[in-house]
Amino acid sequence: MRYLVLSDVHANLPALEAVISHAKKQGYDQVVFLGDAVGYYPHAEEVVQRLIALDPAVRILGNHDSALLELVNGDRGDHWAAGVVMNVLERQLVTLSGDSLRFLGALVPRHSQHGFEAAHGALAQQWDYLSTVTAAQANVGLMTEKLLFVGHTHVPKVFATVTKGPQELWRTVTFKESGGSTYRLPPLARTIANPGAVGQPRDQIPLASYVIFDHGAGLLMHHRVAYDVRSVQADVIAAGYPEVLASRLEAGR
Question: Is 128 exposed, middle or buried (0-12, 13-18, 19+ CB in 10 A)?
Fold first, then answer.
């Protein structure tokens, strides 16, 4: 079984379309969506409808998705989302159809099945970032499968650990290659893998990022895909969104 694993689309339709087109050429059987369909960019309805059409086998709730759903219920309480984030989500809420809101409302915080599990952020604290070995160490004991997919950091990275006697040995791999790379899952290791962001990369590489997971072969194939960044930047300005959201796309941050 081959899985298209994608995360953090953030209402960036051209990036999502580029990833889907590229992934079809690689071949996949099912889709794993790790959350954050909405936020930041001005194609919220189109992106959610595209995700609905993809019919993901795994559908995870992201923090931006969660914040938007709280707005649906009139909740603007003591929340992490403020300023630019909340302003964008309020704009997006009025553009979303009933179908799209139902899709977002059905997203789950965590999924587990034979071979892997999935969440948006950390297992210990839902919206914490799994971006360091220290964070990985604090969460690996909560895993129920040997492989955990997460998003949230917008940086493609793998943490893997094996136990040797009384010691836990850790390895970290950050996917830097613009042309993509392949990681073979160590058979005895517990692994936390992040496919990076489709819609807003944050590792200074302004390309949409995703992973194909070949379960049978034990391979993670990381890919980066070019898309029309300028068109998204123009849409950001035309929609009256904050200009900083346009500039950071080009910088990949």
Answer: middle
Cα 22 to Cα 179, 209, 210, distances in angstroms: 12, 11, 10
Looking at the chain, list the stretches that DSSP marks H as alpha helix, in order from N- to C-terminal side.
Answer: 13-26, 44-54, 63-72, 84-93, 98-105, 133-140, 229-238, 243-251
Residues of the chain scoring pLDDT < 50: none
Burial environment of residue 187 by CB neighbours within 10 A (0 to 12, 13 to 18, 19 or more): exposed
Report pLDDT for 37: 99
**What pTM does this model have?**
0.95
Interatomic CA distance for residues 16 and 8, integer angstroms? 10
Give the Cα separation of 128 and 221 in Å (integer).
25
Q: Which two tokens stand for residue 99?
A: 């179908």
Is domain 2-251 classified as CATH 3.40.30.10?
Answer: no
